[in-house]
Amino acid sequence: MTKKDIIRLLENIATYMELSLENPFKVSAYRKAAQSLETDPRSLSEIDKFIDIKGIGKGVNEVIVEYVEKGESTVFKELQESVPAGLVQMTKIPTLGPKKIAKIYKELGIDTLEGLKNACENEEISALSGFGKKTEENISKAIDDILIRPERYAINQILKFREIIESHLSESEHVERFDVAGSARRMKETSRDIDYIVISKDPQAFTEEITEADFVKETVVSGDKKLSIIIEDDLQEINVDFRFVTEAEYYSTLHHFTGSKEHNVKMRQIAKKRDEKISEYGVEKDGETVTFDSEADFYNHFGLEYIPPAMRETGEETELDVGDIVTLEDIKGDIHMHTVYSDGAFSIREMVEACIEKGYGYIVITDHSKSLRVANGLDEKRLIAQLEEIRAINEEYDEIDVYSGTEMDILKDGTLDYSDDILKELDYVIAAIHSSFQQTEEEIMHRLESACRNPYVRHIAHPTGRLIGRREGYPIDMDRLISLAAETGTALEVNANPMRLDLSAEAIRHKDVMLSVNTDAHHTDHLDFMKYGVATLQKGLIRKDQVINTMTREDFREFINKQK
DNA sequence: GCCGTTTTCGGCCCGACTGTTTTCAGTCG
């Protein structure tokens, strides 16, 4: 059992209680308790008394203790007996909350999505008091949608949707200014929808214009202050919301709709203690509404430093020294990238020049090793030839240090793809798993341990092998890997490619481990991925001094020349 | 169910919008 299991139990209890029409504050007490556990830096084995955690009192503590000891929960079991699981499915239908679901269940005995769909077609829903034709249509349509549509989209897909919308917004004469908000702005791994804050002199004209665009499938809500549409790209579709605001409100609204919910709740509690009230229109004090010229001003108003969007997740970020947390400006080099030698699209020189553009002081060229044939991995002879070319190119540039490295395969049996005799010639060695993902956790951990213990391996690339929304990655004992990394002086990578973000923010949060954040670029355009990697570090509340590539050019040189 | 520099009861973040009503409940972000 892990902490995650307990968190899931508490969240399930909250959902089931909500559907039993329990006191909403009791429901939210369970959600808060789950959140407190999540935010607590300790692992399950390190927590001896749950009741000492803020947000966990007598009641929730009993539930947790029983669950930890017996592996089951009486409270949850009883809820499951009284609340059909199908009702939980119904909570996914927008506009259907616990009250309406309970009513449908109580009065019509409907407890499945299919049953609900039938009832809509038979006009049984609109016959209920408080429900009308419109509600019935909406429910019916929403059921069709949830059956075909994923609940959340991976950040990679979100970026594609954003390009469509943002190129329209940039060109529209009715848009003075806009910013993306919501989880997309916070660069979450996945998002349910996309939000924009827009200043427009004529929201109605903007609405007419965009709803005519061919990528718009449907208009959901259309008012003076808000527009909600569904857009489509290939076969995928997603909700996009626009909030129309005045210049003065802009940053308050941007902050409000950037969230997260938990962050906003925390900010409002801070405001309340000062007899102030935060809304999307500003901060109300003594009946007057204060507005701001930037989000930094907003935070400063409350005596806080600017908190970057990516960090605004649990609320905990309002309580720590944000200045210690890594930012994009702190990143001085990219130490994992590919060239035409293996499966990259550009030459060493082209990668070097693109990195100079980025202002980096150093980079490491890390092409694939010989066993990764699909990626045209380098055998020893080509590797040495590349090393010589890198040395020569490095001589030509004063503004950047170019190091020779490799992204070497950790083979199935735990041996490494190059011998130590070869590795010692290189400046920087990365090891990674690219094969046999179906092995057991023990076999995978044996491979990772063997790489960590090699004296030349500096870091482990994309340690779990996951692809967001596409594959889980191989089985791994994260606590063990982190302690191995610490013991052997090996860094773990946060791969900045938005399909990977591996390690995840969740995996690194509150962990005292050395990390390395890299784009793994196979194209010069991929060098821009760094911001997603940094966002992941920020969500993990990672300090600058935990990240190898925040080192200055000189420190990195010294680091390279030093034995591991 | 949780919490307390307003401390053992009473409040728990706040406001907008929709669809249903005829003044508002429910839902959402």
TrEMBL record:
Residues 48-67, 88-107, 123-142 form the Helix-hairpin-helix DNA-binding motif class domain. Residues 1-313 form the DNA-directed DNA polymerase X domain. GO terms for biological process: DNA repair. InterPro entries: DNA-dir_DNA_pol_X, DNA_pol_lamdba_lyase_dom_sf, DNA_Pol_thumb_sf, HHH_MUS81, Hlx-hairpin-Hlx_DNA-bd_motif, NT_sf, PHP_dom, PHP_phosphatase. Keywords: DNA replication, DNA synthesis, DNA-directed DNA polymerase, Nucleotidyltransferase, Transferase. Its EC number is 2.7.7.7. Residues 333-412 form the Polymerase/histidinol phosphatase N-terminal domain. Pfam families: DNA_pol_B_thumb, HHH_5, HHH_8, PHP. SMART domains: HhH1 (SM00278), POLIIIAc (SM00481), POLXc (SM00483). It catalyses: DNA(n) + a 2'-deoxyribonucleoside 5'-triphosphate = DNA(n+1) + diphosphate. It comes from the Bacteria. GO terms for molecular function: DNA binding; DNA-directed DNA polymerase activity; phosphoric ester hydrolase activity; zinc ion binding. Its cofactor is Mg(2+). SUPFAM superfamilies: DNA polymerase beta, N-terminal domain-like, Nucleotidyltransferase, PHP domain-like, Sec63 N-terminal domain-like. Gene3D superfamilies: 5' to 3' exonuclease, C-terminal subdomain (1.10.150.20), Beta Polymerase, domain 2 (3.30.460.10), DNA polymerase beta, N-terminal domain-like (1.10.150.110), DNA polymerase, thumb domain (3.30.210.10), Metal-dependent hydrolases (3.20.20.140). One of its GO terms (cellular component) is cytosol. This is DNA-directed DNA polymerase. It comes from Salinicoccus kekensis.
